Amino acid sequence: MTNSALLVMDVQAGIVSRFDQDSDYLPGLRRAIGAARAAGVPVIYVQVGFRAGYPEISSHNKGFGAIRDRGGFDEAAMRIHPDVTPLPGEVVVTKRRVSAFAGSDLDVVLRAGEVRELVLTGIATSGVVLSTLRQAADLDFRLTVLSDGCLDADAEVHRVLTEKVFPRQAEVTTIDAWAKGL
After folding, report:
1. For the Isochorismatase-like domain, which residue ranges apply (predicted)?
2. For residues 18 and 141, what is the distance between their CA atoms, to the nearest angstrom?
3. Measured in whole angstroms, how far is the alpha carbon of residue 117 from the centre of its chain?
4. How confident is residue 75, by pLDDT bands cut at 50, 70 and 90?
5. Within a 10 A sphere around the Cβ of 3, how many other Cβ atoms?
6. Is the peptide bond before 137 cis (omega within 30 degrees of 0)?
7. CATH code for the domain in which residue 135 is found
8. Are 115 and 93 in contact (CB under 8 A)?
9. 66 in a structural domain
10. Per-residue CA distances from 69 to 9, 66, 74, 96 (Å)
């Protein structure tokens, strides 16, 4: 997969903790990361984060404003989940909005690495995955979504996105099928 990268988005301890810890999500995501590394596909981690005092959060931003008003995330909750920890040298991008591109240097990292295809995973399907897919499509990236590498609080929303919406702009496949093709 020349010129591709696997994006692992918002798989942070505080976000993962909201989901069933007995699910197959993290083991599957570890398989995808392992397959990418073995094939020489860069793994890029994307996390949401803010400075002390949350100067990036506008009072007009309903979603992030609520986080700020609750006191935000503590430092431990912001860390990438220990089950999918980046290796030394793997890129970790901090974003300030829902899309992996918004308020981050992801585009610069991708251009510098001559990446033209993105393989998307993350939490939530209806949040970071949807927003990143839309923006990446507008930026002319080839896109693959690993349906079981994405997780959403609403199973029906996840299904509609992966079966009906995402296929309009991306190839949608499973972790095992993608890894087999590497």
Report:
1. 4-176
2. 31
3. 14
4. confident
5. 13
6. no
7. 3.40.50.850
8. no
9. no
10. 24, 5, 13, 16
Tell me whether residue 65 is in a domain: no
Which residue bears the tokens 């087999």? Answer: 180
Count of positions (residues) in the chain: 182
Q: 29 and 150 in contact (C-beta within 8 Å)?
A: no
Q: Which of 2, 1, 9, 3 is nearest to 120 (CA)?
A: 9
In three-state secondary structure terms, 30 is helix
Per DSSP (E only), the strands in the chain are: 4-9, 43-48, 92-95, 117-123, 142-151, 171-173
Q: Quick one: CA dihedral 149, 123, 138, 5, positive or negative?
A: negative
C-alpha angle 13-15-17 in degrees, rounded to nearest 5 = 65
What is the pTM (predicted TM-score) of this model?
Answer: 0.93
C-alpha 26/C-alpha 80 separation (Å) is: 12
Q: For 112-121, write each residue's pLDDT tens digit.
A: 999 999 999 9
- Asked whether 32 and 149 are in contact (CB, 8 A), the reply is yes
Domain total in the chain: 1
Range of the domain at 128: 4-50+80-180
Residue 171, strand partner residues:
144
d(CA 52, CA 146): 34
Which residues, in sequence order, are CB contacts of 142 under 8 Å at separation 6+? 4, 116, 117, 118
Written as six digits, the tokens of 159 are: 């299904």
